[in-house]
Design goal:
Layout lengths: L1 H10 L6 H6 L5 H8 L2 H24 L9 H17 L1 H13 L4 H28 L8 H22 L12 H19 L3
Helix pairs in contact: 1-4, 1-6, 4-5, 4-6, 4-7, 5-8, 5-9, 6-7, 7-8, 8-9
Amino acid sequence: MEAALGLFARQGYAATALDEIAAATPVSRQTVYNHFGDKETLFRAVVDAHLAATLDVLREASSGFHGPLPDAESCLNDLARRLLAIASNPRAASLRRLLQAEGERQPELLALWRDQVAAPVFAEVTGLLARLAHGGGLYLDDPTRAAGQFIALVWGTGWQLTVLGTIAGAASADPGERELDAALRSCVRLFVRGYGQP
């Protein structure tokens, strides 16, 4: 399954042969054929397995926000780190690239990603922002729109620093935890300033 995900993500579905996947594993070619039958079945199994693993990462990231909340900035700094952990998880990143590449050929795969990963992320962030607003920490007229803005700030900044590196203003081509943390804190301050007063 790991070998298949890696090859599908790098080469795309159409350019990857089942024989190539079998050659990249420690088992025999016949074992792969016996277990999955064909490339389509293997592809679906890979998507299902890795969506489940991505959901596990999401559940871990969203735990801990169910008790009393600290001030908005502290809470959102923690949330930003958790969101970046989801986006930068290697398995989730590979799966996202794969589903984006194959989305035109198999639109139901993008629907799976939307329903099983993107929707739960938005629901968690929206719920947390609504709780912060209810407690007076933020002033929101539309928590769902604010959730989209917050996610775009965090994931966009993380992508710029880790993928684009110095092009996006990172101090180094491989930013460390301190640099990422400083960038996320800056995003949170911007967000809290924008929604911190009526």
